[in-house]
Every structure is written in structure tokens, then in C-alpha cells.
Amino acid sequence: MVQVGDDTWMIAIPGDPTCVTYRLQSTTQATVQALFYRKRDGSFTMNRLEACAAP
Amino acid sequence: MSFNRNPKMPPGTPTLCLGLTLGLSLAACGGGGGSGEGGGGGSGNPFVTAEFRANYGLANIRAANAYEAGWEGTGQTIAVIDTGVDVDHPDLDGKILPQSTDIAAGNGTTLNDTFGHGTLVAGVALAERNGVGMHGVAWGADLLAIRADALNPCDPFSACFQDDDLAAALNYARTQGARIVNMSLGGGGIPNANFRSALLAATNAGIIVVIAAGNASGANPEYPARFAADPAYSGLVVAVGAVNDANAIAGFSNRAGVASANYIVAPGVSITTTSNTGGYASANGTSFSAPHVAGAVAVLRERFPTATAAEIVEMLLSTARDLGADGTDAVYGRGLLSLSDALAPLGFLWVPVDLGALVEETELRLGAAFGDGLTQSAALANVLALDMLGRDFHIDMRGAVLPARDVRASAFEGAVLRSADRAVASRIGDFGHWGLSFTDSARLPATLAEPDGEDRSLRSWWMQSGTEHTQTGLYYGAAAGRGAPSILAPIGFASRLTLPQFTLAGTGSGAFLSQEMGKTARLSFAWHRGDGSDPSAATSLGQAWLEANVGRVQLALGLGQADEEASLFRSTAAGGFGTFASTRSQFVTLGGAMPITTGVSAFASLTTGLARPDMENGMLSGWSDVRAASYNVGVRWQDVLTRGDRVGLAFGQPLRVEQAEVDVTVPTALRADGSVPSTTRRIDATPSGREMTVELAYDRAVGQAASLATFVSVAREPGHDRDAAPAAFGGVRFSLGF
Q1: Nearest CA in chain A to B211
Q2: Which residues of chain A are at the B interface, by a Cβ-Cβ cutoff of 8 Å?
Q3: Among B263, B418, B662, B712, which residue carries the largest CB count within 10 Å?
Q4: What's the whole-model pTM score?
């Protein structure tokens, strides 16, 4: 679980161990319902190809 | 002029006859083939391009059929409440409505999508089809982009939404006239009252709100998608889960759960779509399932502009492809979005003419005399029909006009496959004779290739009596035609060419009376009443004959009348075509025969018929007088191969409608007020071709108690169908008496 805002976290979900996938969660706010991937610089992206090699 | 049916059997002798008839088709008839509708997402569809294939989701939701039919969401607006949109993306810049806005502008943001999510979502829904990259489901629709994400308290690298901003976004979409809203967002618990009020106002205004189900693998959709289960929103909130390219539920997707009745799945794994860099990206999540559905809603709204929001949602949900457990289930809900199925007729189709009639019950079965008439009428090529939701479809009803059955079958009309006769006959002193016979037989099936399985057994009896000058007869369970002049007797097995009026009547009972008038003339009367076993057959047939010998020439003049209860020359109609009222037709037959030389005679006959039909309650009305004709000429030889045998050669045309017109009234459109206008055209109902037939027949006795008969017939344009290939057929009949 990675906190990315005052009330938002990136939560890893089961899946490809070579390309960890996250969903965004907040306890009080609605969030976008996309999945995220972590880039080398630690930031998150919705574009899998930016973070991981093509499957 | 003898009416003895078997002149080889001495009168007064009890007889038992066994008959066997074998019909053989020597060559196949060419028939007109039916035409089926095209459509499909396969390689034959011109919309299945590289741009289409870039997002496999389009194929999985069967979108190509919609595009091929001309529906792509043109004129529709999809409001996307999200993180804004890349205003410069070439696939989106031409369709962003000027009313697009940043509803939460107080956060210091603009419409331009810095986060990227809104651009990804909008692309799935409606990215332009321009031969580059990918295109959206409703590539003809416009975008009302409403940015609603909040920087505070959210980190700038993530995006979240405050309930009050979402409420404002919904209200804005409603006041801007949007009828479709996509919200690829969720979580954070139950939204506040302000949001719920705005959602209620939207659905009360007839807006369909499509919401992502969530990515938490939960058993139920997250809020606000969970409102799909709340009847307060009139069923206009649709929750969307995600499936992968194999149409299996994605592990991350929230399931249908309590919202299964208003939950549908769409592709949400590895979806290629527009990114805020001006290019394309591969994205995952129920965020990208929802816009597949929003785009489909736009296409349906374009196709069915008069449908209500509830009807649009019903189309969507009831036509989804069932996945998982049968029916609606807690994982896939209603199933996988299927745009082509949502566009197809739902339930029954009916033709809104007069009292209305189901399409599947609408047919016009033509009698042989009509050949292929009306089967290619352009007036029937585009008929408005309505499905169970009252949606309009235009269908080709030419296939509902069925030409007469295989002409080979009519050649054996009334012929028997096998029969066993029991007969007794006796003289009455020197005064006269009488005879009585019973026959158990089986008629040939309607088509030789595919017997219809119907019980075609017959039990008939025939009683005949007579003196030197007078003949009378009664029969039951037999075909019409008894008592006809011998010079008009067919050389084949049936009366197609010589006595076509008898082909209108099926089996039944009847009587005849024949009286000599002096030494050179005879007057006969025959009456036949159908047994009702064939609804297309005449209910009664009356015939009068005057035969005369004029020198060496034998002449026959016949006047006849046939009554059909609900048919016209054995054509029947049902459903949207209406039904035939009782029809009376009159026939005149003129025939003659004359010897040419010893054992050789020539013969000819001409029959014309006239009917004045009427039809009720359907698309067909206003029939003209219907005139039909049949004729033949031929030669007979006797004692050709052996004493007593006969050879006949005939050339002629079976009964053909020569003149007939009818009004065809078809519904043409569905107006916004629900009314249905129609147009009427007067069309020619005569067949396209003219069957001409050559028949060669031979019969002879075999020994003392048997007989053999055979015939071969070749027909050009069989069934009066100009495009039919020539047909050849024949038969053999063997009868054995004991």
C-alpha cells in the first residue's frame, strides 16, 4: 500500500508479479477506476507500457 | 364413349387390383434460391479495419455490424465526467463541444487533461474514425467533457472527486441537454445527499448514467455504481464490470452482486485508447469498460430516436450475451454487451397494417397457375415491421411469397403410390351394367425428394351404373375428373395440360351423369365436393360437357365452375397479406380429336379460366379479374409395339395466370407520434415465365390381368419461372388384377 495523497492510496492487486498492478483507493472520495503501474522513478502511470515491458 | 376405367377386365368379374406407381425425377429442377441478410463482424465487413482492431473490445461487443448498418452515434452527445480531456488530441479535438467545462475550476485546473484519465476514457467512447490509431465505439458522437477532479485533498499524481463537484457535474450535464453520462469513477463510500439528489434529477430527466463498477474485486459494485440496484433511479443507472479479451471476468473487477439486474460487462483489460500525449496507450480497469457501454448507448439512441431511456437500457441489458451461470448471475449480471444484438429486433416482429399481423405468420402460398408471381415484387422489398418494444425495422418480405411447390409433384397430382382395388361388376340383363369398387391406396408425397411424412392413405369407393345410352356414377375419396370426355384424357398421370380446372380440386366425393343425345352427341354433368383435407383446394367443382362427332372429328365443349373458400387458384394467404374471401372461377374448355390414319389420331384442347377474387385485412387488396389459360396439342398411336398398346405425345402449357393485378399497401415509417404511414402500389401478379411441357406416354396390357403405363415429361421454365432450369421427370405404373 502506497500513500499518494492525504486520503488516497495505491493498493497492489494480485496479478503479474513482473509488473505489479495497483488500484487507487480513498476512504472519502471517489477515484478514477483505472489500474496503475509503477515506473522506475517511483511514480505511477496508467499506461502499462510505460512501466513494464510488453507482455 | 365408355367410362369403364379398366376396359381389359370383363364385366361381371370380381376383381382385385394391385397397383404400383413409381415416380422418378430424371433431372433436378433448378429453383430460385432465397437470399439471406449479410452483416457480421468478419473479414467481409468493410469496417473491420486496422483502426477497428486496435481495440479488441469493438469486436468483442460486436460493433462492426452496427457500423455496416450505418449507425455510429452521429448526432449524440456523451457527457464524460472525469479529469478533463486532451483538447489537442487529433482523435478528439474535432468533437469537443464548446460547452465542455471544468466544473471544479476553483481548484485551479482547466479542462485540459493533465492527469490523463479522462482522455483515455473519452477515446474508448467516441474517438474519431480517421484511419489512424484506434476509434471509439460511437465514433460519430460528440463529447461534453466535464472536468470534476479535485486537487485538494488529492495528490496531483492521482485523481479523486468530491461529491459536491460530481453533483454539480451531473446537474451541468442535465442542463446542457446531455442524455448519456459516463462516470469512470467510484469508491469512497456512499455519496452524500447532494450527489444523490443530482443523480435522481438526472435519471428523472431520462438521462442514462453509465458508471464503472470498481476495481476492488468486490462481490458488489462500489458506489456510485451500486445505485444501479436502487429502484429510485428508475433503472437508468447501469453498472459496468470488466472482462478480458476472452470475455472472462477480470480478477480486479467488482462483480454484479446486488445490482445484477442493471449490471453488464464490457472489455476492460489492455484497452488501446487515446492518451493525453497525443498518441495512444494501453489501459486497464473498469474505467474503460464503462465507456464501451456509454458509446453503445449513443449508437442505440441514434438508431432509435423515439425510444425512451428505459427502452434503451432494456435493449442493452436484455440482449447482452449471457456469460457465467445461465441467466442473470451475481458475477456477470446480464452478461456481455452486444451492440449488434441490441440493434436487432427483440422478440416478435409484426406488420402494422389493418389489425396487425406477426411477420412469421405472414405468407402467400401461390398456386401453380401463379408460378413465381409476386415473389420478386419490389413493393414487398421494404416493409416496416415493429418488434416487441415498438422499434421499427425494415424487412424484405418477398421471401414470404412462396411459389408453387415443385412442379414434379403436380405432375403426379392425385396419382397413387400403391393401391389395392376390390371390385364387382355385373350386367343387368341386356339392359345395362353396374359396378362397385373399393380402393385402398396411398398417394404420392408432395415432393418425391422429401416425403412430408403425412398419412397419405386413401380409402375410396366408386359406383357406376349405366345403360346403352346413360351412365351414372358416384364416388367417394377420389380426385376430381371422373366423367370427363375421353378425348381430353391425359396421356401422363395427371390432368395438368388437358383438364387444369381439376387440379384446383383435391380429393372428395362426387357424382356424374352422362346421356347420349342421338347417335353423335353426349351431354354430361359432373359435380365434385372437396373433403376439406387441403385448405388450398376448391370446395366444389361443377362441370358440364357437350361432346359431338362432326364427321371424323370428335369435339368437346366444357363449362365449369369452381368455388374456393379461402384461396385463389390454390393460392392461400395469411397474416399481414390478408386472407382470400370466397372465390368463384369459371372455366371454358374446348377440345377435339381426329384420326389421321389407321391407329393414329391428333388431339388438342384449350381451357380458359376467370376469377374475381377479393382479399381482406392485409397488404393485398383490389384484385383485378384474374384470367388463366392452359392448352395442349398432341398425337396418339395405337398398336405400336403390340396389339392394344398406346403411345401419346403432347405439347402444351399447364394452367397459367395470364392477367392479374393487385394493390400492395405497405407501412413505410414510424413517426415520432407513433403513427405509421403507408404507400400503395398496383403491381402485376402474373408469373415471370411460361412453362411449356412435352410429354411422352406409353401404356399396354401385360398378359391377361396386368397393365403397364409410363410417361416422361420435360418442362421448360417449370412452374412458370423464367429463371428455373428445365425439369425432366417421369413415372411408371404397374397394375395387377386377380
Answers
A1: A33
A2: 4-8, 10, 13-15, 21, 23-35, 43-44, 46-50, 55
A3: B263
A4: 0.77
